[in-house]
Amino acid sequence: MTEKPPYKKRRISMQLSTKDLNYLKDELSWELLAFKKCHHYAQECQDQQVKQLIDQMGRMHQQHYQQLLNHLNTGGVMPTPAQGPTNPKPMSQ
């Protein structure tokens, strides 16, 4: 039996339409806003269990934001600065 050559990663270059880029920009904005709201309400919360839950939700939105941004950056598509910071501040525990 012959061996197959090692798997090689191929980078596929794709052009995103303006509509796609606008959708991704909106999604980044939504994730950033959700993160900021969670951070705000966690700071206002008196109940520690609720505060932890809100912090957890905020971290999830922060991760989604960062994943989208990383995916766009590695794909060669650079978002505009109007989309928000590239690394929002982590939520305090």
Task: For the structure shown, list the relevant keywords.
single chain, 93 residues, mainly alpha, 0% strand, elongated, Ferritin-like_SF
List the helices and strands and how they pair.
Blueprint: H1 18-44, H2 48-74
Question: What does this entry look like structurally?
Answer:
The longest helix has 27 residues, at 18-44. This protein has a domain at 28-77. The protein is an all-alpha fold and 93 residues long. The chain starts with 17 loop residues before the first helix and ends in a 19-residue tail after the last helix. α1 runs antiparallel to α2. 58% of the residues lie in helices and 0% in strands. InterPro entries: Ferritin-like, Ferritin-like_SF. Residues 83-93 have a biased composition (Polar residues).
Q: Helix coverage percent of residues?
A: 55-70%
How large is the count of helical segments? 2
Q: Note poorly predicted spans.
A: none
* Strand/helix succession: HH
Mean pLDDT across residues: 81
Distance between the termini: 56 Å
Principal-axes geometry comes out as elongated
The biggest sheet, with number of strands, parallel, antiparallel or mixed sense and barrel status, is:
none
Beta strand %: under 5%
Number of E strands:
0
Rg, Cα atoms, Å: 18 Å
- Structural class category: mainly alpha
